[in-house]
From TrEMBL:
This is Amino acid ABC transporter permease. GO terms for biological process: amino acid transport. It comes from the Bacteria. Residues 72-267 form the ABC transmembrane type-1 domain. The lineage of its organism: Bacteria, Bacillati, Actinomycetota, Actinomycetes, Micrococcales. It is found in: Cell membrane.
Amino acid sequence: MSTQTTYPATEVAAPRLTRRQRARLSLGVQYALGIAVIGLLAFMTDWATFSAAFLRFDILERMLPRVILIGLVNTIIYAALAFIFAFVVGLLLAVMRLSSVAAYRWFAGAYVEFFRGVPALVVLFMVAYGIPNAFPGFQFPGDKYGMVMVGLGITAAAYMAETFRAGIQAVPKGQLEAARTLGMSHTRTMATIVIPQAFRVVIPPLTNEMILLVKDSSLVYVLGVTAAQYELTKFAQDFLNRSVNATPLIVAALCYLAITLPLSGLVRKLEARYAKAR
């Protein structure tokens, strides 16, 4: 009589996912949920009502081409002028904050803390109307353009000063000491060795500051500008009051994106290039 030995069945363990597979699965689930939410919102939206309130193409036709030739161009001019002013003043303040002279450090520190704590709208208003009242007969070069350059630039300079200071301090001290041992003066060392290297570090944050100035140009309305001096927000507000429709605001937002998106892309490229160089 033969006997047959039986063995207990063994369970085959399911293969475990690798870390990369789990990451892909998680990303796929997130994408699926995002698409589902967007699809649900698109399905529930009353597109007829939404289009009538925000996407009136007849209003867009009336805005063109002045929204570009006046609003967009003036916005770029205001931001560029303020950036140039802030760049020069901010660099000077950064050097003063790092100076061995206590009075320079105190003045630059007080300037930075004050103008970083006061709203840009208040500074712009006080510069535009306070300076002419304090100095009778004084006129800004370029009228409103000069007011905007100084008014927005003063606030931006406080932020740029800190950016420049961080960039200068990022340069190895050994290079400064080596230049001094070769007989170079402190001013020449800063101008020819330290500051040029600091620029490579501060270009990305300075580009971000330019983006902020583009948006801050919307504060120009407090100066009572003429129609030829309108920036994007004021231009859109004027059409909004006449059309009683939000389409001008959407057009202005798209114009702002036409300026800021390329600048944002430039920041990413500069940051990637700087990280690669390191």
